[in-house]
Design goal:
Length: 826
């Protein structure tokens, strides 16, 4: 089974409604928030009508005019503008008694002067004072009167009178003098000749007892750094400095949950050596185990220094002596909150979705594995009937076993509290219509192209396949599959002809598993091979498996058969050996899918780009606005993964064959395989030999297998994303100099490479960022990875992986062989 380890935390974006409106009771105005601004140099007025109170310019007449006398020769008094800010605050859906009391106290405090103050900041500077023009502070009106309003969104107002020369409002500052934080969804400022100014906030504003600085919200209108209006330049610089944590008194300390600081750290919080040596895990990130960086939390180090751990020979490192600062960071166990920037926390709607939907899916996928891992009485399924009963009758747990499970994954308690100990499962799609579809070779091959991991199939370009591992350590690199094994499966073709006609394909998990097998197979109840599977493309355009190679390190456990080759069966005995060989291939595939393709490529490797974007790109930067909906919640999902999924003894280690070595395998894949220049769909297809360049084709590529749904559908999405990013970049960058001269843009990309991916910073393949085409290509890749690519790897895991025999993530035995008794021992 390929459990939806990340699906339960699956990415879901909430970019904000394009026309969020809140109407006050009593016939109050409705105020719209702009979802996306128009062309940067065009009109920024909202196309939709905005029914705000638009108090127009008020002219103060001179005394002589009021008396009916002729106007004096001196200039008239300056005109003033009466403006109104309409603030939409989102209320919590569920308030406990403590929060309700605090809300009432804030309402009464607001009435006696401890109010929320707003200030308008102009895009222009004040020639007398030198800084930006600012309005006087104005209190938000209506907090006390609306304290008992039962609504998801409540609208408040603040009135301003400013000089007519004030200019256009470019920012609003909010000072929260209440005791509690509140969530500002949007602000609309009406009354200026330039039209309504829209501010999409979607942010928590902390009280002054937590942060004495007012929050700054910039207009929705995008500005490149060198086009920032004079009145906003210093605010833009200061806001980025604050997000980087520069100048903070506790810059090196532990981050508070209310902070908005973005910093980098290594993965040093997956283990917990204070619980014992068996819970210690190596640090990911650095010379020993290269890995992308994560969000820094600054938690204290563990009391127990991290002991030297025996790493795979796949990793070479200078010393087993760990510095003091390499000690593990103390863990925060779920459900205790772990730090991410405050606005990265899930909103209530997202939390409810997780609790009610995705967590249930996780429970369905992982519970059989977790039950067997914590209960010696139910270690294994007795047969297929036990698996089938999960969908027919459910699985009833004893109270003691429930308690053990809740301790291991405490977030399932809420789901199970009303189930009376009975686990119920939906029937996965793979067995709904045909109970034995998963057993057939054609379905096994189809899932390599259209399953939940369609990104590892590659064209065989030389025969026999050859390993890239060191032959001095791992033996001869050539595969044990010979021409005699497959010649009868090639429809009369020779191997050479099949290669030349692009008819041979492969799933190759040999090199990623082999360096770890010595340690994986010494774990209790865990057995694995490094596998290779060859497929032949038939005249019907479908794949069929023609050979499977199962490899162990040389002389493992005294086993003389380091490599075994299986071919399609000719009798009942060979049929079940063939099925077991396929099961080991599927188990390899499930591990690589989750640890490499899903977690590493679409989650962990994206985190540095997201951190750098918040640190170096202003909220006004057009590229930040483009990326924001694709970045949102990713860091929260990743933080939760460190708490319950990829941590030592967590869900992934418990449910996948590599066990405690899962994340070391992920680090190995990062070092050996990950390249941002090959993460885009066309480059990936060409790298795997699944497509060739062809300018006559719509996407510039010709697929070598026509019935490859991931690629055919993916290219349509890739083309759409490409067109969107090309057009978007062209709106703001008309020359190479405009890209090279954008200090924020260059700082973002440079920091993501040099700091976020520090262990690969010197790699020669990093794309340059010198021209608009370079930028559009990079953005297309990032948007692709966080949207379409992630969806292909994340959604639909339960329909195929929910039936464990189809994709068993954990294998307990090697394939039986005469004369190898240890191969059938658990």
């Amino acid at each position: 089974m390929a459990p939806p380890a990340m699906e339960m935390l699956g990415r879901s974006f909430f970019p904000g409604p394009a026309g969020a409106a809140g109407r006050e009771r009593g016939g109050g105005p409705c105020f719209a928030a702009v979802g996306r601004e128009g062309r940067r140099r065009g009109s920024m007025r909202s196309a939709a009508p905005v029914g705000a109170l638009a108090e127009r310019v008020v002219v103060t007449p001179a005394p002589a005019e009021r008396a009916g006398a002729a106007p004096p020769e001196e200039p008239p008094h300056p005109q003033s503008v009466a403006a109104r800010a309409v603030v939409t605050v989102r209320r919590r859906r569920k308030e406990d008694a403590k929060r309700r009391v605090a809300e009432q106290l804030d309402a009464y405090a607001d009435r006696v002067g401890r109010s929320v103050l707003l200030e308008l900041v102009s895009t222009e500077t004040d020639p007398r004072k030198g800084g930006p023009k600012k309005s006087k502070g104005s209190a938000l009106v209506g907090w006390f009167e609306k304290k008992d309003v039962k609504a998801a969104r409540v609208v408040y107002t603040a009135d301003f009178t400013v000089d007519a020369s004030f200019g256009e409002p470019g920012a609003v500052t909010v000072l929260n003098r209440h005791q509690r934080e509140f969530f500002v969804e949007s602000i609309v400022v009406e009354g200026f000749p330039s039209g309504p100014a829209h501010f999409t906030c979607n942010s928590w504003v902390q009280p002054t007892r937590v942060d004495r600085r007012p929050r700054v919200f910039f207009t929705n209108k995008p500005y490149l750094p060198d086009e920032t209006p004079p009145g906003l330049q210093e605010l833009r610089r200061q806001e980025l400095s604050d997000l980087r944590g520069e100048g903070a008194a506790d810059a090196d300390g532990e981050r508070r949950l209310t902070d908005r600081v973005w910093e980098y750290d290594v993965y040093n919080d997956l283990g917990n050596p204070d619980k014992g040596a068996e819970f210690a895990r190596p640090v990911l990130g650095g010379e020993q185990l290269p890995y992308p960086r994560r969000m820094r939390t600054g938690r204290p180090k563990t009391v127990t220094g991290k002991p030297p751990l025996s790493l795979s020979p796949a990793f070479s490192y200078p010393s087993n002596k760990f510095r003091d600062d390499d000690r593990a960071e103390s863990r925060v166990e779920y459900p205790e909150p772990i730090y991410v920037s405050r606005d990265e926390e899930f909103e209530e709607g997202k939390n409810e979705m997780l609790s009610e939907g995705a967590l249930k899916a996780l429970l369905h996928n992982f519970m059989p594995l977790l039950v067997s891992s914590v209960s010696p009485d139910i270690r294994d399924f007795a047969g297929f009937h036990d698996v089938d009963n999960l969908f027919k009758e459910g699985l009833r747990l004893k109270q003691a076993l429930q308690d053990q499970l809740f301790q291991k994954i405490p977030f399932v308690r809420k789901i199970q509290e009303n189930s009376e100990g009975l686990l119920r499962y939906d029937t996965p799609d793979i067995i709904k219509k045909d109970k034995f579809a998963w057993l057939r070779d054609d379905e096994f091959a189809r899932q390599a192209l259209a399953g939940i991991n369609p990104v590892n199939i590659e064209r065989l370009q030389a025969f026999p396949p050859v390993s890239k591992l060191d032959p001095a350590v791992y033996g001869p690199p050539e595969s044990a599959i010979t021409e005699e094994h497959i010649i009868g499966q090639l429809d009369g073709m020779s191997v050479r002809q099949a290669l030349e006609d692009n008819r041979l394909y492969m799933l190759d998990y040999h090199d990623i598993f082999l360096p770890f097998l010595d340690r994986i197979n010494t774990q209790d109840g865990r057995k694995a091979y490094g596998t290779r599977t060859l497929f032949f493309l038939t005249a019907a355009g479908t794949l069929k498996p023609i050979a499977i190679e199962l490899c162990l390190p040389p002389m493992t456990d005294g086993c003389k058969r380091a490599k075994r080759v299986f071919t399609p069966p000719a009798d009942a005995t060979s049929n079940w050996l063939w099925q077991l060989a396929k099961a080991h291939v599927c188990s390899n595939d499930a591990g690589v899918h989750q640890l490499v393709n899903h977690w590493l490529r679409t989650h962990a490797c994206m985190e540095p780009f997201i951190i750098a974007a918040h640190r170096q790109l202003s909220a006004m930067h057009p590229i930040f606005k483009l990326l924001k909906p694709h970045m949102r919640y990713t860091l929260k999902i990743n933080a939760l993964a460190r708490q319950i999924l990829i941590n030592g003894d967590g869900v992934i280690e418990s449910g996948f064959t590599p066990g405690r070595y899962c994340m070391e395998m992920s680090a190995f894949a990062y070092r050996e395989l990950w390249r941002i220049d090959q993460e885009g769909l066309p480059a990936d297809l060409i790298r795997r030999g699944m497509a060739v360049e062809d300018p006559t084709q719509p996407h510039g590529l010709r697929l070598l297998i026509e019935d490859y749904p991931y690629a055919t559908d993916g290219l349509l999405l890739w083309s759409a994303i490409t067109r969107w990013c090309d057009a978007y970049v062209a709106m703001y960058y008309q020359s190479d100099e405009s890209v090279q001269g954008d200090a924020e843009l260059q700082a973002w990309y440079g920091e993501a490479v040099r700091t976020g991916h520090a262990d690969k910073r010197d790699a020669p393949w990093w794309p340059r960022l010198l021209a608009p085409a370079d930028l559009a290509s990079l953005l297309t890749t990032l948007v692709w990875l966080t949207s379409a690519q992630h969806a292909a790897l994340n959604f639909g895991q339960y329909p195929l992986g929910g039936y464990i025999p189809n994709r068993p993530p954990l294998m307990r035995r090697l394939v039986p062989a005469e004369g190898d008794p240890e191969a059938i021992e658990p």
